[in-house]
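ingest -> validate -> predict -> emit
validate: passed (alphabet ok, no gaps, 153 aa)
predict: started
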Amino acid sequence: MRYHNLYYCLKGHGLELTDNQLLDIVFCYEKDKIQQADLLRYEFDLEFVKKEVEVFMNVCDLRTKNRGRKLVRARHFYTFISITETNIPYVNFGFFMGGFDHSTITHAMKTVESIYSVDEDYRGELNNLLEYLEKSSINISKTKLRLSKIKLK
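emit:
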């Protein structure tokens, strides 16, 4: 019924779209609403942690598509911590991050693990971030456990 009402509301505004295009808009809208609701069921407060990471890493907004090194590193750290703590599906997390594809999320997870194993400065920065988050009363026990299993080179 919701689809029906939205479809006719859009059609009534005189948009020059085919019926299939209108239906695509309706289904995308509903899919986004479902994914947003799905994010609310996680106890780990994604928005609060995002803000804390932004403060610690001194970046403006992790959701931008900017590819600056500092921002990308902060985004990777945040992604790694959030995915590890929540087991949220990559597609849903990508949606939360502003429309990133699941393959981008997969890349971030693999990048953190591979660089963490070889780069001491990177490892130190991530560990400092984890300490900062713990001081902010954020439970990151799963992330620490996962990092402890990474073989250092």
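The chain is about 70% helix and 0% strand.
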